[in-house]
Amino acid sequence: MPAKINGMTPLEILKHLNRSNCRDCGVPTCLAFATQLINGDKKITDCPHLTQEAAEELNKNIVLRGRDKKLEEMLGPLKKEISGVDFRSVAEGLGAEYVERKLHIKCLGKDFTVDRKGNIESLIHVNSWVAGPLLNYISRGGNKPLTGNWVSFGELKRASSVAQYFDHRCEEPMRQLAESHTDVFFDLINIFKGKRVEGFCADYARVIHPLPKVPFLILYWRPDGQFDSKLRLLMDSTADQYLDIEFIISLGRGLVEMFKKILSKHEELMPGLLAL
Q1: Are residue 159 and residue 264 in the same domain, yes or no?
Q2: Taken in order 152, 60, 137, 206, is the CA torsion positive or negative?
Q3: Where does a domain end: 18, 38, 62?
Q4: Based on the domain organization, do 157 and 45 belong to the same domain?
Q5: For residue 4, is it within any domain?
Q6: Which range of residues forms the domain containing residue 49?
Q7: pTM assigned to the model
Q8: CB–CB of 258/250 below 8 Å?
Q9: Is 117 exposed, middle or buried (0-12, 13-18, 19+ CB in 10 A)?
Q10: pLDDT tens, N- to C-terminus, the chain (276 residues)
Q11: Total number of domains constituting the chain
């Protein structure tokens, strides 16, 4: 059975292509193109026969298999890098504490510990979308002062080529969650130590810290008459000095997936989270 990614298989993607096997994309068949699209070896724009509307719709519904596989593969090398980091010297610059040869770091307001082998412990579930950024954050050593200058993901260095992916897989899904569960969504932000900030014209403005020195600013405008809702996910201009671009994407996706899971079961999970 073909791998299914976010509800779409290569065969399902094939239905949206013209199936002419024209080779204009550089591969022999449209099915091969669909497979390479999921693997991250081709971009949706490599097919000259897709309309802009169809291309945008596909981008919203495809999670690149190659991107997730790459993230998993990077955990091993990251753990090796961690073994060479002087935890004591980097702790303060990372906003962490060094206790009993381990780093203690707040991630989404919750306690995480990391040992010299890169093993991570926490009361909440640790998946690769959290583990990768956390290990990368430690290996880079941090220690850059935050500027307070909020920028979009695409404004960060080396981010422009994947800005559309970030918009589709992080910012847009978060907007949908905020629109469909507005009050619960922002209660959830508060549970994870989100802070209200002033000076923005948005209906909601919250700063949340996925990592101590990597704050995200969430600005949300409710739908108003003929205008759709709007959400901007901004970060401090130093974000790319604390994390590689790939791991900033991972962190954004991790937030979205965590919020999706909790909101889908909010009556069951919210009391437990409040007690943590």
Answers
A1: yes
A2: positive
A3: 62
A4: no
A5: no
A6: 10-62
A7: 0.73
A8: no
A9: exposed
A10: 333 334 467 788 888 888 899 989 888 888 888 877 776 667 788 898 988 888 877 776 665 555 556 666 778 889 999 989 999 999 999 999 999 999 999 887 789 999 999 999 988 777 777 888 999 999 998 878 999 999 999 999 889 888 888 888 889 989 999 998 898 899 889 888 899 999 999 999 999 999 999 999 999 999 998 899 999 999 999 999 999 998 999 899 888 888 887 887 765 554 554 444
A11: 3
